[in-house]
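Service request form, structural biology core

Requester: graduate student, group of Dr. S.
Request type: structure prediction, single chain
Budget code: on file
Notes: please return the result as structure tokens.

Sequence provided:
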Amino acid sequence: MTNLAHDEPDNAAVSQLLSRRRMLALGGAGAVALTGIGAVAHAAGQGASTGSGVLDAAKAAATASGTCMQLTTEQIEGPYYIDYELFRRNVVEDRTGVPLILVLRAVDAATCEPIRDSAIEIWHCDASGVYSGYTGTGNGGGGTPPGPPPGTPPTDPPTGPPPGGGGGHATPTDDLTWLRGIQMTDHQGFVTFRTVLPGWYTGRAVHVHTKVHTGGTRTSAGYTGGRTCHTGQFYFAEDAVKATESIAPYSANTATRVTLEQDGIYPKTGTKGGLLHLLYDHRHIERGVVGSITMAVDPAATNEGGGLPGGGTPPGPGPSPSPSA
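Core staff response, request fulfilled:
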């Protein structure tokens, strides 16, 4: 178990927490270990001066198809969501790792039209598998809990999802904010975040959490009104994650890594289930990665992420329904 609570640096300048009905406008106090978009451009085999061209290409690929998409799978919120409402593109702060540019798009699943002026939110762990706000919990809540006092009668083994994968909400242990942020979509439904590739923790494949908020507006009080129409997770191809295992700081992560095939929450349905399209130099992933995806959502729906893994809903009283195909 990795516990960073005792040696976490002082992030007072950026950890000014506000409720969901207030806004914190941060430009991103930290810097990516390399040169952000320029490094990712180099990773794609282009010069740093064409960094914006890499992002343009990712956006062009996302908008090239006029075919309507199936609804992106709803997934559980997980225990580490905090309503900080940090409006910023750069969410890195003081975290280190492989630079990651996320190019995210929201479209209406019924019309395929981009959803303008919606809010897309992300949060994820750092290279060590630790979430800001939960450094006292350690590596995704993993590790071995202390045993019962001597003489305590034995109890049945615990049931339910593996650590880090279940529903419910954990109590924050600190006021840190790295690797969390929210942005408003542009006229084509896009937002772009600058972050670092997440690490891994007990029981889960590498992933990024997301929420799409619609029907509200950004004001001086924050994102006001509306609803959360989509709660999901983004995933990374196994080859990309495996390539980071020998690179610092990921190489110091001693948690057993879960693959996509082993993960009990990833629905194994590719893009529909949140699998990112990745662009990077396969010989030098440390230079940076561009991850892109289009989310097809129902802007009038409400999906807070309280259901079962893969978008299911808890059964009501009485016998559980038979599983569907």
